[in-house]
Amino acid sequence: ETGVTQTPRHLVMGMTNKKSLKCEQHLGHNAMYWYKQSAKKPLELMFVYNFKEQTENNSVPSRFSPECPNSSHLFLHLHTLQPEDSALYLCASSQDKGGGTDTQYFGPGTRLTVL
Amino acid sequence: AQSVAQPEDQVNVAEGNPLTVKCTYSVSGNPYLFWYVQYPNRGLQFLLKYITGDNLVKGSYGFEAEFNKSQTSFHLKKPSALVSDSALYFCAVRDSLIYGNNRLAFGKGNQVVVIP
User: Is the model's pLDDT at B83 over the cut of 90?
Assistant: First the structure.
């Protein structure tokens, strides 16, 4: 798990707060991902970045705003969240060569609780 | 479209017995298949993947998986389960027919409980 790090590991926020999640990958990969993991549900892909460019936004509400300043760092800015946004947010990275065979490596996640 | 099904919510197995976690998939082209494991309060750890070639794939921690095209399955197996194998296991698929496909379709996961 040291290849992909995430901070903070736990976050409690009110519905009117603004906070940010940070992800950093030390694997030299060119693609980064945000996933949402809720209990008893499949992982939901939120955003994909290739070479710092957003290539996928999976119909995510605008209260989630991603930022990818370089290929090693990925942020998820949060504002005016709802209690149903409480979940484990996972970051992943991969070396995307275009063929679809790359393996995604995950960070430990941020456990978010919205009060 | 690409999807996987993990039909069992929980798999219980006695320590030392063989462990099998089932996964079936649906894709339009050829499948790229992955297994991940998640321990409590941790992220997903990669176990193994099938891209092409030998249908039996060996991975980390003594796990292996068998690709069966006719049954569209990719079941995860371990000959002798350990208590430390108790975790949540995810199967995932990517459709080779979708150009530039970054998206992995995950199953809902199987909780494995190894009983001492």
Answer: yes
